[in-house]
Amino acid sequence: MRILHQFKAKVDGPLFRATGPSIHLGDGTFGAAKSWGLFPGLEFLSGPEPSSNPRDLAPPNNNRVTPHPNKITAPFMAVTVSPESKLPPTASGFYYSPDSLNGRAQAGIDSPRLLPSKPLSLSLTWDPCQKWDSRLSLPTAHYASPNQPALANSHHLALSIPSISTHVPEYPGDSFLPYPAEAGQSFSIRAELSVTSGNALRAFGEWITHRGGLPEPNPPPRSFTDEMALCRAGFLETVRGDRPGTFRHCIDWASNPSAGFNLLLWLDGLITGHADSRDTAVAATEPMSGDQLVSPSLTHILRWELPFHYGRLAEGIETLGRRITALADSQHPDSGWRQPRLTGKHARLGQAGDAVSGTVARQTMDLLRHARITGSSASLKPGLKALGFLNSFALPRGSQMWECPMYQPDILAAAYAVAANHDAWRCTGEEHYLSEAIRWAETGVPFIYLWTLPAKPMMLGATIPVFGSTFFSHSWLGVPVQWCGLVYSYHVWQLQETLGARPCLAKRSDLGFTQADWQRIVRHITVSAMHQQFTDADKIGTYPDSIVDFEKKMPAFINPEDIMANVLLLNGHNPDIKTIRLGQAEQTVTISSAAKIQTKMHNESLAIEFDYYPGQPVHFLVNRIQPKAVSVNGKPLPRVKHAPDRNAGWWQPDNSDRVYITTPHQTTKGLLEISF
Questions:
Q1: Which of 29, 252, 479, 650 is the most exposed place for a label (fewest CB within 10 A)?
Q2: Percent helix, strand and coil across the chain, each to the nearest 5
Q3: Mean of the pLDDT values across residues 513-517?
Q4: What is the pLDDT of residues 73-94, one digit of tens each?
Q5: Which of 168-177, 455-464, 485-494 has the lowest mean pLDDT?
Q6: Residue 119 contacts residue 41 (beta carbons within 8 Å)
Q7: How much is the pLDDT for 89?
Q8: What local confidence, expressed as pLDDT, does residue 623 receive?
C-alpha cells in the first residue's frame, strides 16, 4: 500500500516533528509478541529479543529508536508474527538471546491473544532520497520492538520529518537546530506499507524485487590490470616485513611469514607475468615449514591453497591433518564448541559455556573444508555433526569475540556458515546443505548498503561488521568494516558457482536471489572496497579497517589480500582448491587440485583433464585409489620414494589412501591417467 502524507505550515515557526505513517503493531491484540524483527544495519532480532539492546552496545548508543539515516543499510523495517511468536520472558537477564544455547531454555512466554494462523510480516519502506520539503531528504525512521520508549505493549514502525541530526536529536539530550518552517510551506512523506506471508527476510526479498531488484553496482575505479598493480604495490612495498619472506597484516604491525600472501603474489606472477611478484613468492615459500605452508597467518580468507598451486603438497597436507585431528578432538560431546571463560576487559563480552552460531562456525568450516579437499572421513564425520549444531541457530552472531559482544549479529558468522554448508554439500551431494548455505548467505545481506547518497562511491556495497560494538563502547552502527564483507563475498561467490545449475533453489529461498543476484552482491562489496583503497603515498595498496561518513579512512590500514582475492574471482581466476568426488562401489574417490579439472572413471582407470597456467607443474591429491601406474599426456610418470615438491612424480605414504601427484611443466591443458 502506497502512503502519502502531506503537511502545510500555517504560521512561521519551528517544526519539531510531523509524523507520517505510524504503525503500532500488536496494540490491543498480541502485544509485544513476535518471531522476527529486521531493521537493516541496526537490528536483526530473533523471537522476543528487544530492539535497542544494551547487551550489545552501552547507553546511550544502544538507543536505535530514531537512528541517523546513514546507519540504515536498506530503507526497510519489519516485524514478523506467527503462531509460534512469544512474549519476552519476565526475567531474561543481561545476556538473553533465544538464539543462543543457554537462551533456548528461556524461549519466551506464549501470547494468549490473536496470533495469525501463519507467519506474516508487516514492513514499512521508503525512499531515503525523497525531498520532504522540496530541498532536504532523509526522513527520520522510528523502530521499537517492543515499543519500550512509550511503555507500550506493541511494536512501533514510523517515519517523520525533519531529519536527524541537524533538526532532530538522535539521542535524548543531543543539541539540534529546530527546522524553521514558513507559513504556507508544504511538506510530504512517501512510504509503502506491506504485509507479506513469511518471515522478515522474505518480506525484505519481496521489497528488493518490487523496487526492480538489486541496484546497479558502481563502476570499479580501476581496470583489472591496474588493480593487480595496486595490490602488488601493497604487498611488495607497504606491508613488506622487516625480515626476508615476511609481511605485515597491517601497516606497522609485526612481521610474519604468510602462505596466503605468497599465493597471491605467485598468482600475480602467473597471470600478469610480473617477475618481482613471482620471485618474491618463491623466495618466501621455499624456506617455509610444512605447518607454515598451510597456516592462515596474516590472512582473513586464504588458507591451505598455496601448496596446491605452488607445490610441496604432501608436506602441507600431512601437517594439516594433525591440526584438524586436534580440532575434532576439541569438540564438545554435543558436537559444538563452547565459549571459554573470559577475563579482564573481555569478561563481559559473553557467558562462558554458552554457544551461538559464531562460536562454532569457523571450526565447522575448517573440518568440512579439510573433508572436502582430502576425502577424509575422520574430518567429515565430526564436521557434519558440528554442522548440525551450527544450523540449529537462526542468525549469524559472535564471530569476533576478540573484541565484540557475543550475541550481536555478525556478518563473519554468516560467511563461515555459508562455506561450511557449501563444503558439506560438496562432500555429500545432499541438497539440504545447499539450502542451508543459501539461508546463511541471505542473513548477510542486511549488513550491506543497498542505497547510496550522492557523490559517496564507498557507500553502495559497504558492509557493517556487527550490529553492535567493540567492548560495548565503540559503535559499529553506520561504520563499515569492509574486510568482514569481503570474507563474506568470497564465500558467497564460491556458492553462486554451484547455484548456477540449480535455479530452483532460489525459488524456495527467502530472498529469492538468482545466481546473477549473488554475483552482483559480490561486485557491490568488492567495488566499494576498491574505492576505499589507497592509491598512492605510504599507504598504497592498503585499505582502512573502517570508514566514517563513507569518506574518512580510519586505521588500522590492512593488506590487500581480501580485495585481491575477490577481484581475482570477478575476473575468472578462482584461487580456491577445486575438488571432484566420484562414487565407486564401496568408496568415494576424491580428486583435488588448484587446476580446473574434469574426470572420467572407468572400471580400472581414472582420467583427469586439467587446465592450469602455462609453464607450471600441476599438483594433485587423490584419495582412495591404489595406483598401478600413472601417466601424463600419454607418458609414464615415475613413482618416487619421497614426497614430490615441485618435481614430477607420484608418491603414496605408507599405510595411506592418499596419492600425491606432480606433473611435469605443462603448456596449459593436460591429461592425467591413473590405472588401478
A1: 252
A2: 30, 25, 45
A3: 96
A4: 999 999 999 999 998 888 889 9
A5: 168-177
A6: no
A7: 86
A8: 95
Least confident of 38-42, 217-221, 296-300, 640-644: 640-644
In this model, does residue 111 exceed pLDDT 80? Answer: no
pLDDT the model gives residue 587 = 74
Instruction: Indicate the helix (H) or strand (E) that contains 417.
Output: helix 411-428
Q: Sort 600 into a burial class: Cβ within 10 Å, 0-12 / 13-18 / 19+.
A: exposed
Q: Give the mean model confidence (pLDDT) for residues 315-340.
A: 96
Calculate the dihedral angle through the C-alpha atoms of 641, 644, 649, 650, rounding to the nearest 10 degrees. Answer: 70
Question: Per the structure block, which three cell numbers stand in for 23?
Answer: 504503525
The cell for 267 is 598468482
Confidence label for 203 from pLDDT (cuts 50, 70 and 90): very high
Residue 459 has pLDDT above 60, yes or no: yes
Q: Is 441 left (phi over 0), alpha (psi -120 to 50) or beta?
A: alpha
Distance, CA of 412 to CA of 227 (rounded, Å)? 25
H or E stretch covering 611 = strand 605-611
The label of the residue with cell 597436507 reads 317
Exposure on the CB side of residue 95, measured as CA atoms within 13 A:
21
Q: What residue ranges do the domains of the chain occupy?
A: 2-210, 224-570, 578-675
- At 254, the amino acid letter reads A
In whole angstroms, give the CA distance from residue 6 to residue 20: 8
Of 77, 29, 79, nearest in space to 49 by CA: 79
CATH number of this structure's domain 578-675, picked from the four choices 2.60.40.1180, 3.30.540.10, 1.10.1040.10, 3.40.50.1820? 2.60.40.1180
Order of strands across the sheet that contains 76-81: 2-8, 186-197, 120-125, 76-81, 36-39, 43-46
| Residue 656, number of CB atoms within 10 A of its CB | 12
Q: How far, in Å, are 50, 112, 123, 256, 394 from residue 86 at the CA level?
A: 12, 9, 19, 51, 16
Distance, CA of 209 to CA of 400 (rounded, Å): 32
Identical topology for domains 224-570 and 578-675: no
d(CA 571, CA 574): 8
Instruction: Give pLDDT, residue 526.
Output: 98
| Alpha helices, H only, 20-100 | none
- Write down the architecture of domain 224-570 according to CATH: Alpha/alpha barrel (1.50)
**CB 498 within 8 Å of CB 419:** no
Reading phi first (left if > 0) and then psi (alpha if -120 to 50, else beta), residue 37 is in beta
User: Residue 79: which region, alpha, beta or left (left: phi > 0; alpha: psi -120 to 50)?
Assistant: beta
Average pLDDT over the chain reads 96
Any idea what DSSP says for residue 639? Answer: B
Angular region, 39: left φ>0, alpha ψ -120 to 50, beta rest: beta
Q: What is the pLDDT of residues 571-620, one digit of tens each?
A: 999 999 999 999 855 579 999 999 999 999 888 899 999 999 999 999 99
Specify the pTM: 0.97
User: Which of 624, 619, 629 is closest to 582 using CA atoms?
Assistant: 624
Cα distance between residue 229 and residue 234, in whole Å: 9
